[in-house]
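Continuing the batch. This is chain 6 of the set; chains 1 through 5 are on the previous pages. Same settings as before, nothing changed between runs. Recording input and output for traceability.
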Amino acid sequence: MECMDGPPRHMTTVGGHVIAETSKRVPDLYADPRLLAFISGLVGATALPVPDPVERHVLNILHRRGDTHGAHTDDCPYALVIFLEAPDAPEDGGLLEYVPHASCLRDLTTGQARTAHHQAGDAYLLRSDTTAHRVTPLTRSGLRRTVLNLACTTPDATPHSTPSARHLYT
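Output for chain 6:
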């Protein structure tokens, strides 16, 4: 992904515009005022839907050995990531690596990165525009890591856009 200094992106993706055409439940969940109120309570600011239909809700699927979602920051301030499938053990890969308050992707290689393993059914909320993050490669065949990412913004967020979402999801 050249627009993010070249980290690898080996995965299957589905953009929000495609999800909206093929699913009623995901767009309904995304627009549910209770979900937005929940996120607002967690972040201490009003969470709003993202205007861009491509980035609102996306699926990221790692399903082959070596699949990875390389180092990046997101265009939107917040990402609620819900695990539909995940490798059982940390040594299987698919781990979230992140450095809070670090937009420099090189910070992920300086020993500052934190690592988190997740199971199917887990979720996390990430300040995704100011946290450098990546997903480690799957270590063997037969594994799957499928996440639904629900992006949110806030009224005071400065609009930020890179070409990466268009490359990944359209």
